[in-house]
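Why should sequence recovery work at all? Because a backbone constrains its sequence more than one might expect. Tight turns favour small or flexible residues, buried strands favour hydrophobic ones, and helices have their own preferences. The token representation captures these environments compactly. In the example below, the structure is given first.
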């Protein structure tokens, strides 16, 4: 009969095995490289949780509200009235842009999607710190949930935009309506890239969320929403500065969405040439950016629980 082992020897042997066991970092690196297939598979496996987070964000936004989803329309409609009256009538922008209200609302609708994705994504990790610290799940789910809730609000505003064009007798019954597809894709791709990057950075530097608020506001005025792209062209001329401005993916998305739903402009001069090609190139670059920011996110997520 063998003698029982000394408990201290058992503990030492256990600690030795733990010491020799290889560490598996949460960022998912294998041999110094970031593996991408595993987290994507885990995100797909957690799609039910993603749906729950989206529904929770939507319900929480209108919790204890008497008007509920009507508040989704209050902000864009208020902005529309302000821009139409102040910029359109007082400053005279409406005199150079037919159906100025449709033009502005189309721009506000697509830019609002980008704004909600980024603003919701930047605080998504910090706002769900309890889940991050207690539940083992892909942390990418939290910024992705901001995309889902933003798409819900965007869908409501899109319905209002379509109804407005019908009421005003300028329904977009033309082939250029297809421009809406790459416009939405551009916003989703770049919004996802920025949401992943900024949500991770905000964990370690909380000032990021306030800087993003300022940047989103400035980017809105840097996009042709309340003024025409032709005004920028006439001001800066056909040169490198105009190309830099035009090839901004957010500018391209706004121009494409306006071309889809605003039928009162002169297509030959109201938009930059080769708009389809510009949007396609921007979309490819955006997909690369998503891959890069996802890898950065996974590198940074290893210390989320400690930082929170």
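From this structural description, the recovered sequence reads:
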């Amino acid at each position: 009969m063998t003698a029982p082992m000394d408990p201290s020897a058992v503990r030492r042997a256990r600690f030795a095995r733990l010491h020799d066991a290889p560490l598996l970092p949460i960022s998912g690196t294998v041999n110094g490289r970031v593996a991408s297939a595993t987290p994507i598979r885990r995100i797909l496996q957690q799609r039910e949780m993603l749906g729950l987070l989206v529904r929770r964000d939507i319900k929480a936004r209108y919790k204890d509200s008497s008007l509920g989803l009507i508040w989704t329309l209050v902000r864009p409609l208020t902005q529309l009235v302000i821009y139409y009256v102040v910029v359109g009538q007082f400053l005279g922008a409406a005199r150079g842009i037919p159906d100025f209200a449709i033009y502005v609302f189309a721009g506000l609708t697509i830019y609002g999607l980008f704004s909600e994705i980024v603003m919701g994504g930047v605080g998504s990790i910090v706002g769900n710190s309890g889940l991050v610290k207690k539940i083992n799940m892909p942390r990418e789910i939290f910024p992705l949930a901001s995309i889902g809730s933003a798409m819900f609000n965007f869908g409501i505003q899109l319905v209002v935009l379509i109804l407005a064009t019908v009421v005003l007798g300028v329904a977009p019954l033309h082939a250029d309506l297809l421009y809406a597809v790459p416009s939405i894709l551009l916003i989703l791709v770049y919004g996802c890239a920025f949401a992943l990057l900024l949500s991770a950075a905000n964990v370690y530097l909380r000032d990021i969320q306030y800087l993003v608020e300022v940047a989103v506001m400035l980017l809105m005025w840097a996009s042709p929403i309340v003024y025409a792209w032709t005004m920028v062209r006439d001001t800066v001329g056909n040169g490198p500065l105009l190309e830099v401005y035009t090839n901004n993916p957010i500018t391209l998305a706004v121009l494409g969405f306006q071309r889809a739903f605003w039928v009162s402009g002169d297509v030959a001069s109201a938009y930059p040439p080769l708009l389809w090609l510009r949007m396609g190139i921007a979309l490819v670059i955006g997909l690369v950016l998503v891959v890069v920011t996802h890898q950065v996110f996974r590198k940074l997520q290893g210390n989320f629980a400690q930082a929170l």
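A few observations help interpret the result. The first helix runs from residue 7 to 20.
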